[in-house]
Design goal:
Number of strands: 28
Shape: elongated
Distance between the termini: 18 Å
Radius of gyration: 28 Å
Number of helices: 5
Structural class: mainly beta
Largest sheet: 14 strands, antiparallel
């Protein structure tokens, strides 16, 4: 008889039996295997401290979407702003304008395909288009703080206030349009994408929050598909009028610029303090719930020592992490549909690179918002078991985890694409403690103590 195979089959059957409505005997192998091969499936629940922490600058580069707008005075998160940095190219790089062409007018059109709203007040957001004064490099990851105040200059657009319409139409300074015409008027010169971008480095669409100071909590973040953005230049010659188009250069990354006012909410420090009653979750570069799994591993190790459990005989069938939403203090509509556990990857040469544990790819991982139970659950069995294996796999080390919104999509070939959310804004509050000061986060283990080897 193949005893190892039988152990796996019987262990699986026992886990299913745990959910039955009748009392069951959790002892496996009775009457089937020798006495020294019997083993039990057991359960243990731990309470895990949860904190709020700030993340270093996070990657916001994207070839797909831009974000612009602000959320004003949203308690307790403060003010959040979003701006979009992008480059344009002529629809046809080989195009040349007729001799003596003069700019008549120019308009930048951006289609708003979705938005995030906070508050019930009408949204009035002044928008301005700035000209970049520094080049954006190809094949580079950009961060929420990649743009400095000295990286952009004059305003190219006429005054415009966004009030929730489906399309943003900015009238552009004709002088800028004339520069475009002058650059593409020399039919004797071969123009390339690189040459064009060296001269016209890019654009920055920003929202002005100055008029919203002191207003009630309100705001809107508008999401723009780069493929929908178009700069239209109308020009005329001595005997005709015509139009030329410019689209966003989206084969390489553009990026979004985010600022947050939520940093004062962070309480994670070393040594770790007592957990607070509330834990804060904000998307993008905002504050995140934080779990130090080095402390969690210490808790598990101490428990195993008290129970005389040898790590070599410790088999985890399921490790579930449960986070509870502080409802109705927080709106479920502003919470992300998916969350994961991310950690800073110190092996990367670039600073502030965050990745997520491999369990995220597993179908059993979950991480979805359960609206009826008002909770998130994560199945992190693979990672937790790895904490007690002697391995060089760095992903099994006890990381400091940030709970981050997750984005899943499919590429043109039908393959699943998983990444940390880079565009959508979220904000919400989780429970840090119950009424008795006990941590609210639950860590549930279903495990087996394997028989010792002889």
């Amino acid at each position: 008889m193949n005893i190892p195979y039988l152990k796996v089959v019987l262990a699986t059957a026992a886990i299913c039996a745990l959910h039955a409505c009748v009392e069951v005997d959790n002892t496996l192998g009775l009457d089937y295997v020798p006495d020294d091969q019997l083993f039990d499936v057991q359960q243990k629940e731990f309470r895990i401290p949860l904190y709020t922490a700030t993340m270093d600058s996070v990657v916001t580069s994207t070839v797909a979407y831009g974000a612009v707008g602000f959320v004003n005075n949203n308690p307790p998160f403060g003010t959040f702003t979003a701006g979009a940095v992008f480059r344009i190219l002529p629809y046809d790089i080989t195009f040349t304008y007729p001799e003596h062409a003069q700019a008549d007018s120019a308009t930048l059109t951006l289609v708003v395909y979705a938005n995030t709203k906070v508050g019930n007040d009408a949204v009035a957001q002044p928008l301005a288009l700035h000209r970049l004064t520094r080049s954006l490099q190809y094949s580079t990851s950009y961060y929420n703080n990649s743009l400095k105040s000295g990286d952009y200059g004059s305003v190219l657009s006429q005054p415009y206030v966004y009030r929730g319409e489906d399309t943003i139409n900015l009238r552009i300074d004709p002088a800028y349009a004339q520069e475009l015409i002058a650059f593409l008027s020399d039919s004797t010169q071969t123009t390339t994408d690189t040459m064009f971008l060296d001269t016209f480095k890019g654009l920055y669409l920003a929202a002005d929050t100055s008029t919203a100071a002191g207003a009630a909590p309100c705001g809107q973040i508008n999401y723009i598909d780069w493929a929908s953005v178009r700069l239209t230049v109308h020009y005329k010659t001595a005997d005709t009028t015509a139009t030329e188009y410019y689209d966003v250069e989206s084969s390489t990354a553009n990026f979004n610029v985010f600022t947050h006012g939520s940093a004062p909410l962070a309480n994670a420090a070393y040594p770790l303090p007592a957990p607070a009653g509330s834990v804060y979750l904000e998307g993008l570069a905002g504050v995140k719930p934080y779990i130090d799994f080095a402390a969690v591993k210490d808790t598990l190790t101490q428990w195993m020592q008290r129970e005389a459990i040898d790590t070599s005989q410790f088999a985890i069938h399921k490790a579930e992490l449960l986070l509870y939403i502080d409802y109705p203090q927080t709106s479920l509509d502003l919470l992300p549909d998916l969350l994961t556990l991310a950690y800073k990857d110190d092996s990367q040469d670039t600073v502030s690179v965050y990745t997520y544990l491999t369990d995220t790819f597993l179908g059993i991982f979950d991480g979805a918002l359960n609206r009826s139970l008002q909770q998130y659950s994560f199945n992190i069995t693979y990672y937790t078991q790895g904490l007690f294996l002697h391995t060089d796999d760095t992903e099994r080390t006890p990381h400091q985890f940030y709970i981050c919104p997750l984005h899943k999509s499919y590429d043109d070939y039908g393959s699943l694409v998983v990444m940390l959310e880079r565009t959508q804004y979220y904000a919400g509050i989780l429970k840090g403690q119950d009424g008795n000061g006990v941590p609210s986060v639950k860590f549930k283990l279903t495990y087996t103590k394997l028989p010792s080897k002889k």
